[in-house]
Amino acid sequence: MATVTGVQTRERVSAGAAIWSWVTTIDHKRIGVLYFVTSLIYFMVGGFEALLIRLQLATPDGQILDTDTYNQLFTMHGTAMVFMVAMPMAAAFFNFLIPLMIGARDVAFPRLNAFSYWTFLGGSLLMHSSFLFGQAPDGGWFGYANLTSKEYTPGLSIDFWGLGLLVLGVASVAAALNFIITIINLRAPGMTLMRMPVFVWMTFVTSFLIIFAFPAITVALIFLEFDRLFGTNFYEVAEGGDPMLWQHLFWVFGHPEVYILVLPGFGIASEILPTFSRKPIFGYSAMVFAAVAIAFLGFSVWAHHMFTTGMGTIADAAFAGSTMLIAIPTGIKMFNWVATCFGGRIRLTVPMLFALGFLTTFLIGGLTGPMLAAVPLDLHFQDTYFVVGHFHYVLFGGLILALMGGVYYWYPKITGRMMSEKIGKWHFWLMFTFMNLTFFPMHFVGVDGMPRRVGTYAAGMGWDFWNMLISISAFGIALSVLVFLHNLVVSYKKGKPAGNDPWDARTLEWAIPSPPPEHNFDEIPHITHRDQVWYDKYGDGHGSAAELRKTDADADEQADEEHDVHMPNPSYWPLVVSAGLTIAAAGLMIHIAVAVFGVLWTVGAVYAWSLEPASTPSEEH
Asked: Which pLDDT band, with edges at 50, 70 and 90, does 540 fall under?
């Protein structure tokens, strides 16, 4: 009995140590996994909210949800899918892959990287804790003033939403700064900017978009919370405020946010398509400059969301023109992806199917975009389900399908095991089919005038059949997600060993073991070509293989010297700082003393963090 007890104790200690290692980790790969698992959980939460919404709208005069509950689910579904699913799931890929793709051992600031994750988790939990107090946000994910003022939305629901978003914004900006500095400073020798993988470029551009776009929503949210908590009047018309200020600030952030969401999908597709076409990406330079152009023009189109607000014909014409203009660099990317596939030896693996599905669905979303940019059409389509259909084609088709392709593509590198191709193809065809059956009919009911953001509709409007089809198809998407989760879990336990390079790929992460060691590279590679690993395998006769491959003698020498690679120590201070920041935000809803306590906690934790040694060298050093 004593032996058994001892074994159980050791197991408990071992499990506790394992959990603690994840709590204190600053390894970019583990943080990427944390981002992915957390965003996947929120994906299921947001999807469940969407299913309840579709149950309510499946038939006229729906009685499944009352009005307040519908508004809460509608608000939290939109907020969660944008800020807690799409952005952090893309960040999961950024975290795991960027150092591997540029030949680095970690990000520039590993502790800041951990801080960004824990702050994201704190902000998302703060917002979702509103359900526990019966104060779930119900003002819409767009938060329009004066709908969110104290007069029209009393209680704390909007405060949970606004303060939660502010904390999430801190996490996003911290991560973006880290990736920018990592890409600028930690690239392997010889990896010029124009030798970086396209995915790295998309991360680079997305990070700059975050840095320049998030200040607008931060200012808007601070004004909102000052109005609600301290009695200011930024949006109060009776006191000289202007609710249109919120719309301008929100959409100055909101439209670049669309590209913050879809550019990672562009990057993923730009890695998958060349691999399974066995061709380099067509027009690499054009792809890069098109992304930069999209980012620049993305800040000039925000008011096309406001054509119905009475800005005037000159402003309407200017923003309609800039919106049409942004279709040009986007079209360049589309043509280049097609050209990459054209003439290639295409292998229809699951990642390739998702990449091709991304091309088709994003194209449909892109074609409906100029329709909404045309002012006369937008005046009819605005605030109808046509916009909902367009939006979901761009984000579900332009990001979620690409992210799914990325999971299948890089899963072998992350886990060392292959996902099932058979189950994966079931997943793809279910998701692709039901995605189109869910979102394409929304354009029809939108043209027929069905308004969005409403919880019920009367019989006899001609929308009954389409809404029933949309709702049934939404459950089909849920079925496809269950198939995906099954594949994800079973493959982790029983998947076929992957090896280092199961896809015959082109970028640096495929030149190291699967899963990668903590230090990534035994020796930082020297880059001589854009697709270095491809040239390493198939060569051009100029010794590129020697840069990445080692002789047996080299390998033995590296093994003897591996202790010379010093990685930063784990740390719990990023979590402590994030906790203080979250307490300070929550304290504004509880009592000013709690907020002050949170601020003091944060300052003290930052001070302790600054005194912590970065790493402990070995005795020889």
From this structure: low
Within-domain flag for 418: yes
Contact 516, 509 (CB under 8 A): yes
Whether 565 contacts 519, CB under 8 Å: yes
User: pLDDT tens across 365-423, in order?
Assistant: 989 988 999 999 999 999 999 999 999 999 998 899 999 999 999 999 999 999 999 99
- Considering the domain boundaries, does residue 427 fall inside one? yes
Q: Which two tokens stand for residue 398?
A: 């332009």
* Identity at 173, one-letter amino acid code: V
Write the CATH number for 369. 1.20.210.10
Query: What phi and psi values does residue 382 have, to the nearest 5 degrees?
Result: -55, 135
- Give the DSSP H or E segment for 484: helix 464-494
Q: Show the DSSP H helices in 374-420 as ranges.
A: 375-381, 385-392, 401-415
Residues with Cβ within 8 Å of 247's Cβ and at least 6 positions away in sequence, in order, are 144, 145, 305, 306, 309
Domain count across the chain: 1
Task: Name the 3-class secondary structure at 417.
Answer: strand
Residue 398 domain boundaries: 25-526
> Where is average pLDDT lowest: 6-10, 93-97, 177-181, 186-190?
6-10
Calpha distance 177→197 (Å, rounded): 19
Residue 188 per-residue DSSP state: P
Report the b/e string of 99-117 with b at 16+ CB within 10 A: bbbbbbbbbbbbbbbbbbb
- In this predicted structure, the answer to whether residue 38 has a pLDDT above a threshold of 80 is yes
The helix or strand, by DSSP H or E, that contains position 121, with its residue range, turns out to be helix 110-128
The total number of residues written for the chain in this structure: 621
- pLDDT(541) > 90: no
Residue 557 resides in a domain: no
SS (H, E, C) 227-281: HHHHCCCCCCHHHCCCHHHHHHHHHHHHHHHHHHHHHHHHHHHHHHHHHHHCCCC
Q: Please check whether residue 40 lies inside any domain of the structure.
A: yes
* Alpha-carbon span 292 to 86, nearest angstrom: 21
What is the rounded CA–CA span in Å between residue 54 and residue 46? Answer: 12
Half-sphere exposure of 463 (CA within 13 A, CB side): 27
Residue 451's beta-bridge partner residues? Answer: 384
Structure tokens given for 273 = 């398509």
Spatial neighbors of 449 by CB under 8 A, at least 6 apart, are 384, 461
Distance CA 151, CA 146 (A): 8
**What is the maximum alpha-carbon separation in the chain?**
84
CA 586 to chain centre: 25
